[in-house]
Amino acid sequence: MKRAMDWKFFILAVLLIPITFFGYAVQSQAETAADPAPEIQPKGEANGKKVLFDNSHGQTAGAADWVIDGAFSDFGNGLAEEGYYVKELRKTSAITYEDLSAYDVFVIPEPNIPFKTSEQDAMLRYTQEGGSIFFIGDHYNADRNFNRWDSGEIFNGYRRGAFEDPTKGMSADEANSDRMQGVESSDWLGDNFGIRFRFNAVGDIESGQTVVEPSDSFGITEGIEVVESHAGATLTILDPTKSKGLIYFPENIPAWPNAVDQGVYAGGGIDEGAFAAISKLEKGKAAFIGDSSPVEDATPKYLREDSGRTKRTYDGFTGEGNNGQYLLNVMEWLSEKEDYSSFEETSISLSEVTPLLETATINENPELTTETEAEPWSNPPAGYRWYDPSTFAAGSYGSDEVASNPKYDVVTPATLPTQQEFTVRVVVEDLQPGETLTGLQLGSYLPGGQQIGKFNTTGSWPSSYGYSSSFSVTADATGRAVAEIPAQLNPSTADGTASLRLRKDGSNLLTKSVQVGNVETEPLPEDEVELPQLVAIQEARNVQDGEVVTIEGIVTSAPGSFGGKGFYVQDDTAGIYVFQDSDSFKTGDHVQISAVKTTFNGEVEVTDIIKSEITGQADVPAPKPVSSIDDTNQGQLVKLSEVTIQNIEAVGTYGTFEFDAQTADGNVNRVRVDNRIGLNYDTFTSQFQEGEKVDITGISSIFNDTYQLKPVATDNIVKSAQAEEPVPCKTDNGKHKGADKGKGKGKGHDKSWKCAA
C-alpha cells in the first residue's frame, strides 16, 4: 500500500512559524543594519526586564546565525516566555554606553569582529553601574569570517601571537578598515572580570560534567546535570573573588579533531578550566560559556555572507541535555540587581585558580602567546572582504541584495465557488534553496475594489473580507516553494469576474482575472514537481555534495536510534543515512526519497528532503558478511562473525559504550553501541566479557575519520556459535594423583582431568 506524506497540510499548519523541513535550514532574504531590529514582546505576564542581543560584531558570519529571529530564536522565545522583553542591537558604528544603559542584560553571542577600546569602555561602565553581560564564546580557531580573530580572542582583548600588533598579517585595506580602527591589545577580560577564555578546542562533551551544587551557585545550577558542548573552549579562573566556575568538563576529554594545537590543555577536569562561569564586578555581573552549541537551534535565517550558501545549525537549546534550562537560569541571575561587589562577600565557596600553560609551544601569558598556525586557517572566497558588507553574498545579513528573482503563480479552480470553501495554491519558483519569503498576502476583489475574499493563513478564518494575514513560504532544495490555502468568497457575490491578487509587504506581485459563480468546489490539479530520475543508492553516494537525488530502498534502522530522527536506508547496491525529523518512518518501510546529497563528519547522507513516500513494507535485507568496516560498505547493514571483544569503554553516563572487535586475522573494528537502541554498558558487561567471541550485526558508519559498526537492536550482539565449548568433566582414574602438586613440572602441571569451571 502506498502512503504519501501529507505535505499540503503540513505547510499550511506552519505558514507563519519559522520552520525546518527535515533538518533543512530556513533562510530569509537579506537585511542590513538599516532595517528595523527584531524584537520579541513578553509572552504572558511581563517581568519588567529587558535583554539586548548584539548583532553588530559578525554574529552572522560564516555558518553562525546567532540572532533572535534565526538560530538563537529558541533562546529569545524562551526568554519571552519568562516575561522578558528581547531585542537585537543593529548598527555599523561602535557600541556606546547609551546603547546598553536601558537594558538589564546584554548578550554577546560569539563575536567575529574585535571590540574597539571605546566599546570595551562602554561595556565596562555599563557593568560597573549595574548592568550584566553574557559572553557566549567558542573554541579557538572558530574564525568564521577569515579575519584572524575568534570570539575568545575578542572577549579577552588580544589575539594569540599578535599582542603587539592586532592587525598582524592583515592587508593594508583590512588594517585601515573602520572595523580595525580603535582596536588595541589588552588583557581586558582578565583585568576587569578576573577570567579569560582559553585557546583550547575540546571535542564533544555530552555527559560526566562536574556541576557545582545549587547552594554554591546562587541557584543557577538547580536541575542541571549536563550542558552539552560540541567543539568548545574553557575559561581560566584568574581571580576567584571576581569569577567562579560552575560547570567543568570530565577528566580525559577528547580534543576537537581540527584543533591546531593539542586542543586539550590539562587533560580535562578542574585544571582544564570552567566550561561555564560567572563574575561579579562592582554593581554588575557577567556570565560566560565556552561554546555557542548549547544556545543554537535548527532555524537559521540568513545565507552565508562569504558564499551565499545555506547554513546548517542544530537543536542545542531544547534538544540536548539541560542546555535551555541552564541558560534561562543564568539569565534570571544576571537580571537581578545585587549590592555585593565580590564573591568574598557571599556565602559561596571560591573557585580554584586555573593553572596556566607556559611551555615552549603554548604560553598563556597574553604578551607571550604564539600563533600555532598561520592565519586565517583557510582562504576566503574571492572578492569577499569581512569588513565590507558590499562584498557580502545576496541573502546574507549585511547585504542589501535579494538572493533570487522569484517567479509567482496562484493555481485556482476554473471557477471560484461563491457558496463553498475552496483551496488556492501559491507557487514560487527560482528561489535560493532554503530561502524564505515573508509578508505574503492574498486578496480577491471585484471591479471597483470591493473585497470579497477570506483566506485562512493562520488556522482560523478572519472576521471580515479583505487581504489575508501575512504568511511565509520556504523553498525546497530545488528553489521551489508551495503553500495551499483555504479560501471562501462572500456568498452574496454575483456570477461574473473578479481579481485575485498576491502581494508582498504591500507591493503587488501577481494579479489574475478569475471567474466566480455558484458552482461545486473543484479539487486543484495535482502539484507536479520536477525531480531527478530514480538512481541506485551507490550512484547517489558518488554525486557531488549539494546535488538533488532520488533514491529508494528499505529502512534498516529505527528512526532516532542514533539521535534525532534520522535512519539508514539500503537497496541492492549500497546504503545511506537519511537526516530528517519526521515521525512517519519505521524499520522495514520501503521508501522513495528525493533529497540533497551531502557529507557530514565523513558520513555520506541525504538531507533537506523535498519529497518522501512510503511505498510499502519489505523484509530488512540480510546483513552482509564483512571482515572490515570501511568505505566499501558504509551505510549498509553488515555482520562481523567470530570477533573477539576488546577494550570495552563506557562513553558518557547514559549507558552508551564502545569496544574493539578483532577478527581472526587481526583486523580491529570499532563498535559503538548507542543506549537508545535499548542496550547499555551495564547490561552488556553483565553478559559479555573481554576476550569472548561474538557475532555482531549493525550499520557500517564513520564519524570524524573513525569507521565504526553501530548495532541497531538489542539482539545484534550474540556469542559466536563457534566459540570454544567448556571442557567436559573427566573421571580421576587414579593416574592423576598428586596432579596439583607438580609445581609446574611434568604430570603435576596437567590439570586436564578436572571439571571445567
Automatic annotation (TrEMBL):
Q: Which SUPFAM superfamilies match?
A: Class I glutamine amidotransferase-like
Which residue stretches belong to region Disordered?
A: 723-757
What the entry lists under InterPro entries is as follows:
Class_I_gatase-like, DUF5689, IFT52
Which positions make up the signal peptide?
none
Task: Please list the residue ranges annotated as the DUF5689 domain.
Answer: 534-714
**Could you tell me where the Basic and acidic residues compositional bias lies?**
732-757
Q: Which PANTHER family match?
A: INTRAFLAGELLAR TRANSPORT PROTEIN 52 HOMOLOG (PTHR12969:SF7), NGD5/OSM-6/IFT52 (PTHR12969)
Name under which the protein is recorded: DUF5689 domain-containing protein
**Organism of origin:** Terribacillus saccharophilus
**Organism taxonomic ancestry:** Bacteria, Bacillati, Bacillota, Bacilli, Bacillales
